[in-house]
């Protein structure tokens, strides 16, 4: 989308590209570019390199390691990172709990947590959703009862992403059962090693282990791990979810997927013609590229408005970005499946084959699992039906 | 990054909108459309467009123009799209005038452009033929040198504004194989005139040894035509966005006022969600119209053309979705001539088949390597 950018912005993007492609190990990026998963170690390596260069948390206050960037610069940074297949800084740390602590936490809590959150010395997971609190998050039931200098937490969280790798969890807990449902909620930080916490893996349809259930059985949490004020947690949660607005589109990731598909399609030759020259496949690809280009400009329009008007309330247009952006991500995963044909069908843990068999084409291991896995994109972060409701109410004024 | 309109563009848009709000409500438009005369547009409004400077918007000031850019033209076209104007603006100004400005000799410019800008001359551009679809080069019309000029023979179809044009610009192949651009007097052709489905005037045109002059040099014409069509396509996208915006809000407002089962039907989630999806389509279209407009400043012709073509793919996709949903969500009233929404649908349906259709463009953009490329 160079046409929309100033010369300075283009130079900035170039600088970011150079950083990501020279400083982040090629071994990691190449593996991810071929469809491999990032390991815990990959995330640590990547974020720690970025943090060393002051690039792990650019949108935080400068005093805590942020950069004084424009919304467009922050966007370009994220885009170039995704295009270079760099494992991004852990969103739970940098996009979610970090900004909440930096904005609403006491000085003591900031000093205790922010540096380790930026460096990934603490790996956070998110304790929001519960079995009966999904889209209707405020109906959550996990309780925290004050007992002297501690809270006693009981309940269950679910869909907790990468809880198996996390050492801390930030939770929404009910501290006032009498208050109206949004009002009695608090934002509590809990060490995963605290006695009484059990993590149970949830296997997803892609065969992978990405999310978990987390059970709290009389877990005693020091009261100084409360962020901000008691019973004000819902406001912090709304602030946190508002920060997801343009980032969740991850246009760079969809573009990176499309580039990979084009590379593989050019190499996939049947009856003397590559798939990239197949009119039907190419038409699907082209239509997807058009929609992705459109949403990229939509993101820039939101950022442009934000740059002119300053950060305000979440722009309801960001619901368009989430809704359409997730659909396009999903379409991109589907095209890879189309491309591989029969080679996509086997369920395999890795790309190894016994002696004498042909090497597997790239994508055979990850295409269908990724397609299944990315059904999540239209469910998480405010399901697409929630986004339609927001558009209907906030924009169309139904 | 600067994506918002300039103050000057905003003022221009407001001026056009204010004129059209006064003069172009649905009833006034319907009266023009159904008038018994041969012309279904307003010559009187045409004069007002001239007074506002719209008819020479992008022409150089030395030729009576306002010397403005494509951004301003896009703003005007979006306002025209909202009002669904019937005047031959695209034919005369966007195509005819800009072709003369791009390809014409200094003499042709100084004769024709001031006349277009003041509203006294109407032009049209004929390039589609019975068997050409939208190809600029797969044509059978021929140009033969004759004295100082040329004679043209062939047939052009669906020539926008061809019903009223004083002079027509037509494409024809010269003996050495170039697709040239030629100016023919309206009196020297035979026309079968009609209204398009959207109410705009057009004609099929027969040329039989019609005397003509070349617009600039035939050898250079094709590149100029392609560039003008890039601009025309980009601003057609803006017009379509104006029309789509109106279709969405007509629908939303209707749902809020239509009462069935004792309540406004806007309370039904099925209708709310479909309206929300229409809004998403509109935003995608709006973004691509902006991509098209910004890309016109790109010096790289291939990049520019690809962006404009991609924009039209999105615009046509979005307007089909929005238009057909607009009728469905209105119910029976959306099917009537009396109610405006169907007229917007007819206009955007015609736009989707103007200059090139979606399938053609998808094929061109795809074969050219697509939009998302490494590096």
Q: Can you tell me about this structure?
A:
The complex is a heterodimer of chains A (398) and B (375). Helices cover 45% and strands 14% of the residues of chain A. Chain A has 398 residues and is of the alpha+beta class. The model of chain A has no long low-confidence stretch (mean pLDDT 94). Chain B is α+β, with helices and mostly antiparallel strands. Chain B folds into three domains: 7-122, Butyryl-Coa Dehydrogenase, subunit A, domain 1; 124-219, Butyryl-CoA Dehydrogenase, subunit A, domain 2 (Beta Barrel); 222-367, Butyryl-CoA Dehydrogenase, subunit A, domain 3 (Up-down Bundle), CATH 1.20.140. The interface between A and B is large, with 48 and 44 residues.
Helix content of chain A: 40-55%
Average of pLDDT of chain B: 96
Number of strands of chain A: 9
* Largest sheet: number of strands, sense, barrel closure of chain B: 7 strands, mixed
Largest sheet of chain A: 4 strands, antiparallel
SSE topology string of chain A: HHHHHHEEEEEEEHHEEHHHH
CATH class of the largest domain in chain B: Mainly Alpha
Shape of chain A: globular
Short summary:
The complex is a heterodimer of chains A (398) and B (375). Chain A is of the alpha+beta class.
């Amino acid at each position: 989308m160079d046409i929309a950018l100033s010369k300075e912005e283009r130079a900035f993007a170039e600088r970011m590209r150079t950083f990501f492609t020279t400083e982040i190990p090629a071994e990691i990026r190449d593996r991810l570019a071929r469809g491999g998963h990032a390991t815990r170690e990959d995330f640590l390596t990547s974020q720690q390199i970025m943090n060393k260069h002051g690039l792990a948390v650019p949108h935080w206050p400068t005093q805590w390691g942020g950069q004084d960037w424009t919304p467009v610069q922050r966007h370009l940074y994220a885009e170039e990172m995704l295009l270079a297949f760099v494992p991004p800084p852990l969103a739970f740390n940098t996009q979610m709990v970090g900004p909440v602590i930096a904005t609403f936490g006491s000085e003591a809590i900031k000093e205790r947590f922010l540096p380790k959150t930026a460096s990934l010395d603490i790996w956070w997971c998110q304790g929001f959703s519960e079995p009966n609190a999904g889209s209707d998050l405020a109906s959550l039931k996990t309780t925290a009862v004050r007992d002297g200098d501690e809270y006693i937490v009981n309940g269950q969280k679910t869909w907790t992403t990468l809880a198996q790798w996390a050492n801390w969890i930030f939770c929404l807990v009910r501290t006032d059962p009498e208050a109206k449902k949004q009002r009695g909620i608090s934002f509590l930080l809990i060490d995963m090693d605290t006695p009484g916490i059990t993590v149970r893996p949830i296997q997803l349809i892609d065969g992978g282990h990405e999310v978990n259930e987390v059970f709290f059985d009389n877990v005693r949490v020091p009261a100084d791990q409360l962020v901000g004020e008691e019973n004000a947690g819902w406001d912090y949660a709304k602030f946190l979810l508002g920060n997801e607005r343009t980032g969740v589109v991850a246009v760079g990731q969809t573009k990176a997927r499309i580039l990979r598909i084009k590379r593989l399609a050019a190499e996939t030759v049947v009856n003397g013609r590559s798939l990239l020259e197949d009119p039907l496949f190419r038409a699907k690809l082209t239509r997807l590229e058009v929609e992705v280009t459109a949403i990229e400009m939509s993101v820039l329009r939101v950022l442009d408005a934000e740059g002119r008007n300053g950060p305000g309330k979440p722009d309801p247009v960001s619901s368009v970005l989430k809704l359409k952006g997730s659909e396009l991500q999903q379409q991109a995963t589907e095209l890879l499946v189309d491309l591989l044909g029969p080679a996509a069908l086997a369920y395999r843990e890795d790309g190894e084959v016994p002696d004498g068999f042909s090497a597997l084409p790239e994508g055979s291991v990850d295409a269908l699992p990724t397609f299944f896995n990315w059904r999540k994109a239209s469910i998480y972060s405010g399901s697409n039906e929630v986004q339609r409701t927001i558009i209907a109410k906030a924009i169309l004024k139904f | 990054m600067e994506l918002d309109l300039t103050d000057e563009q905003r003022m221009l848009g407001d001026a056009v909108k204010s004129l059209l709000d006064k003069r172009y409500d649905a009833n006034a438009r319907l009266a023009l459309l159904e008038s018994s005369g041969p012309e279904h547009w307003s010559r009187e409004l045409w004069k007002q467009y001239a007074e506002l400077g719209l008819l020479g918007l992008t022409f150089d000031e030395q030729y009576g123009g306002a010397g403005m850019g494509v951004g301003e033209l896009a703003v005007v076209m979006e306002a025209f799209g909202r009002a669904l104007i019937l005047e031959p603006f695209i034919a005369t100004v966007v195509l005819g005038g800009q072709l003369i400005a791009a390809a014409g000799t200094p003499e042709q410019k100084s004769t024709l452009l001031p006349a277009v800008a003041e509203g006294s001359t109407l032009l049209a551009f004929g390039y589609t033929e019975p068997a050409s679809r939208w190809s600029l080069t797969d044509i059978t019309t021929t140009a033969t040198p004759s004295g100082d000029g040329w004679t043209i023979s062939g047939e052009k179809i669906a020539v926008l504004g061809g019903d009223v044009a004083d002079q027509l610009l037509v494409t024809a192949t010269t003996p050495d194989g170039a697709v040239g651009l030629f100016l023919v007097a309206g009196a020297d052709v035979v026309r079968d005139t009609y209204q398009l489905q959207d109410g705009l005037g057009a004609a099929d045109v027969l040329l039989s040894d019609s005397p003509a002059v070349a617009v600039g040099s035939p050898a250079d014409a094709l590149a100029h035509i392609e560039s003008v069509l890039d601009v025309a396509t980009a601003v057609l996208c803006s017009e379509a966005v104006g029309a789509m915006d109106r279709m969405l809000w007509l629908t939303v407002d209707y749902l809020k006022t239509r009462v069935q089962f004792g309540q406004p039907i806007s309370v039904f989630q099925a209708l709310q969600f479909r309206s929300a999806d229409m809004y998403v389509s509109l935003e995608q279209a709006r973004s691509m119209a902006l991509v098209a407009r910004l890309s016109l400043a790109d010096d790289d012709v291939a990049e520019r053309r690809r962006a404009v073509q991609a924009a039209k793919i999105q615009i046509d996709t979005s307007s089909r979705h929005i238009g057909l949903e607009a009728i469905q969500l209105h119910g029976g009233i959306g099917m009537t001539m009396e109610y405006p929404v169907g007229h917007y649908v007819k206009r955007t349906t015609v736009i989707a088949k103007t200059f090139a259709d979606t399938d053609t463009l998808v094929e061109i953009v795809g074969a050219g390597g697509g939009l998302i490329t490494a590096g």
